[in-house]
Amino acid sequence: MPDHTHLPVLPDSSVPDDGDLMQVGDLARESGKTVRAIHLYEELALLRPARRSKGRYRLYGRDALHRIRWISKLQEIGFSLPEIQAVVKELPTETAQVATGRIRELYRQKLDETRAQMARLAGLAHELEASLAYLETCGDVCEPHRIVAQCTSCDLHPQKIACIEGHVPELVLGFRAQAKAP
Questions:
Q1: Residue 182: pLDDT band by 50, 70, 90 thresholds?
Q2: What is the mean pLDDT of residues 15-26?
Q3: CB count in 10 Å sphere of residue 35
Q4: Do 42 and 88 sit in the same domain of this protein?
Q5: Could you tell me if 40 and 89 lie in one domain?
Q6: Quick check: is 77 in a domain?
Q7: Which segments of the chain are extended strands (E)?
Q8: Nearest-CA neighbor of 17 among 50, 48, 47, 42?
Q9: Is 32 left (phi over 0), alpha (psi -120 to 50) or beta?
Q10: How many domains does the chain have?
Q11: Residue 24: enclosing H or E segment and its boundaries?
């Protein structure tokens, strides 16, 4: 059996030394979050300080900054804090294979939702473009004293604009319909 008594004792890399630690205000500044948000993450068990200073201040390692950015990204893609809390709660007891599989499935679901939302937004952008193209001709052809209630079907627009994709855009029809209502 080899003799390990002469080997140097290496510092535990999971415990940062005090020079690598930052107080909550510094962490807030670097992460772009408020001190209150960081304290909330602690209350929800989403974040833990690495240790406390002699004055009992919370001290955080660089990993806390990564964790806060991860939480922020999850919120950006639609996770609520309770949903993130549920994910984080199970992680310590799961095997790496189970945890990564679960996270992978959550990310796939969010990717599908994001793509569906992008398709909806692309449709809305198209409707806005068609509405703007239609409305931009109004200034050129509408009579200055004609009121919106008289625009139930515009006989002044050139046919090619009125028939963009075979119809007047719904965003135009909607405000015209309301204008003629009693």
A1: low
A2: 77
A3: 14
A4: yes
A5: yes
A6: yes
A7: 22-23, 51-52, 58-60
A8: 50
A9: left
A10: 2
A11: helix 24-31
Residues of the domain holding 149: 129-180
Q: In angstroms, rounded to a whole number, what is the distance separating the alpha carbons of residues 20 and 140?
A: 66
Residues whose CB is less than 8 angstroms from the CB of residue 172 and which lie 6 or more positions away in sequence, other chains included: 131, 134, 135
Tokens of 41: 């993450």
Q: Write out the two tokens for 136.
A: 């931009």
Please list, residue by residue across 79-113, b when 16 or more beta carbons sit within 10 angstroms of its beta carbon and e when fewer do. Answer: beeeebbeebeeeeeeeeeeeeeeeeeeeeeeeee
CA distance 116 to 124: 13
How far lies 149's CA from each of 85, 141, 142, 159, 178, in Å? 53, 16, 13, 21, 8
Mean pLDDT across the chain: 80
Q: Which amino acid is at 106?
A: L
Neighbours of 24 (CB within 10 A): 20
Residue 88 has pLDDT above 80, yes or no: yes
Q: How far apart are CA 5 and CA 134, in angstroms?
A: 84
The residue type of 80 is S
Where do we find the tokens 């569906």?
A: 116
Check if the beta carbon of residue 68 is closer than 8 Å to that of residue 27.
yes
